[in-house]
Design goal:
alpha+beta, Rossmann fold, 5-stranded antiparallel sheet, 8 helices, globular, binds adenosine-5'-triphosphate, ATP binding, ABC transporter ATP-binding protein
Amino acid sequence: MSAITLTGVDLHYPDGTVGLSGIDLDVRDGEFVALVGPSGSGKTTLLRTVAGFLAPTAGLVCLGDEVVADGAHTVPPEKRKLGMVFQQHAIWPHRSVGRNVAYPLEVGKVSRARRAERVAEVLELVGLPGLAKRDPATLSGGQRQRVALARALVAQPRALLLDEALSALDEPLRDRLRLELRTLTRTQNLTVVHVTHDRAEALALADRVVVLDSGQIQQVGTPEELVQRPRSAFVAKFLSDANLLHGTVSDNGFSSADGTVHVGRDRLADTSSGVGTLAVLPTDIAVTTVENVGTTQGIVMSSLFGRDASDVVVSCDGAQFRCAVRGTRPVVGDRVGLTIRRALFYPDPTQVAAPTLGAAALASTSR
Ligand SMILES: Nc1ncnc2c1ncn2[C@@H]1O[C@H](COP(=O)(O)OP(=O)(O)OP(=O)(O)O)[C@@H](O)[C@H]1O
C-alpha cells in the first residue's frame, strides 16, 4: 500500500505565488524518496504539505488510507503521526537528551516506564546508547542531529520527513550519517521523504528521486533512470550537468543552430527529429589529448580534479563543453579532441523542423 499519496495537489500562497501545481505522487510503504530541484522549486512546500503545516488549495493528501487534506479540511500536523527532522536540530537545551527524545511520548501520555524503555531503544538505534541523561549542550552537531532523529522515530511514525536534515553537518560526518540513515531506514522499513539540495546525496540515498521545478514534478524515477534517461533537457542539466545545444535533428544527425557542432545520427539515443535541444552528459564525451583527424578540437578552459573523474571544461568554436575525464587530467590551455559518444535529443513541441543545414560546413564532433 502507498504510505503517502498526493493527487492533483495545488498550493497557492495567500500572495498568489504558486507553491505547487498538479502534484501527483505516490510514496510506497518502506520507500525512500528524495525531493530535489532548484531553489524555489517547491521542495519545502511539498514536504510541509505532507506534514500538515500547509493546506493544499486543491487536491488530496492521503496517509495510508486516511485523507488528511482535501482542499477543504486538513488534519493538523500533530495528528498525522509523522516524524520530522529539520536542518537545524531543534533540541531543547533545558531538557536532557532522554527528555528531548521522550517528548512525543509525553504528549501521547505514554507511561513513564514505557517511555524510558522506548527512549533507550531509539537512542541505541541512532548510535547514542546510554546517553539519555546527557545535557544536549555537551553533544557534537552530529550527535544532536541523531537526537533529533531519535525524537522523530520514538513514537513509531508512519513516515519520516527530512528537511535538509544532514545539510548543516560537515563532511565526513555527513557522509557517515548518510550511510547510517540509509541502513536504519532500510532495516526498520521506514517510509522516508527527504528534501535535499545535494543531488549526489539524493541519488545515493533514494529508491526514487522526484525532480521539481516551478512547483511541478518534472520526473520521478530511480537514480539510474534519471541519470541515464532524463525525460527533459532540464532534468539532464539539473541532475547531471548536461551540455545543452539548440539545433535540428534530420536524417544526417544533429546540427547546432549556429552550425558549429554536428553529431551523427548513430550517436543519438532515440529516433526523434525536428528542432529542439540536444543534451550531452559530461560522461558521454571522450576527451583525447592526441588530436585525431575527424574529432572536434578545443582548448581546455578549466580542469578540476575529481576522485572518480576530473571536471574539465573545453571551449570549441565558442561552445563550451563540460566533460568528465577519467585517467590523465588535461591542464588549462591544452588543445584536445572531443568525441560525443551519446547524446539525448528533446524535440521542442512548439517548433516545426527547420530546413536541414549543410553538414559539410559543420565541425564533426562524433565521427
Ligand atoms: N510563505 C510564502 N509566501 C509566499 N510565497 C512563498 C512562501 N513560501 C514559499 N514561497 C514561494 O513558493 C515557491 C516554492 O518555495 P519552496 O520554499 O517550497 O521552494 P524550495 O524548493 O524548498 O526552495 P529552497 O531550495 O530555496 O529551500 C517559491 O517561489 C517561494 O518563493
